[in-house]
Design goal:
152 residues; mainly alpha
Length: 152
């Protein structure tokens, strides 16, 4: 969890720094333009992606602490508080040993379902994007409404 907090702090700090650069470029140089993909637009995209990644890490850290507070809880999270981080293949070795011993490895149903049906999720997201693009007049929408649609 310390590495998660360190990554979260690093991502938030870099997002804030890049957002400041984006704002200065937007005000003093030129506004962001997707059509010409200028530097302002590229920095805006990087800031958006870093902020989204920081939100994912924050929600994962919340799940880690929820798992730590409730014993014997099957909460999907990426970090294990009882083990120190290790760069070797110890995770794969322990999974193989637990399977050999006859112990069941708990798998999360939703994660397994998405892993098995990646093409289906990709096609579904493209269809939903097409339906939204055909049903909403994106040229005449305001900024706030566009961001709401984008984030939903």
């Amino acid at each position: 969890s310390k590495t998660g907090l360190m990554w979260l702090f690093f991502l938030l700090l870099s997002s804030l720094m890049l957002f400041t650069i984006f704002y200065l470029l937007h005000v003093f140089v030129e506004p962001a333009s997707r059509r010409i993909a200028n530097l302002t637009f590229c920095i805006w995209i990087v800031v958006h992606c870093l902020s989204f990644l920081a939100f994912i890490i924050l929600s994962d850290l919340v799940l880690v602490f929820a798992k730590h507070l409730v014993n014997k809880c099957n909460v999907p999270c990426s970090w294990n508080l009882s083990k120190l981080p290790n760069t070797s293949n110890a995770k794969h070795n322990t999974e193989k040993q637990s399977l050999k011993k006859g112990m069941q490895v708990t798998n999360l149903c939703l994660i397994d379902a998405v892993a098995r049906n990646q093409l289906l999720f990709f096609l579904q997201s493209n269809l939903i994007t097409g339906v939204i693009n055909m049903s909403i007049d994106t040229i005449h929408c305001g900024t706030f409404f566009s961001l709401v649609v984008l984030l939903l």
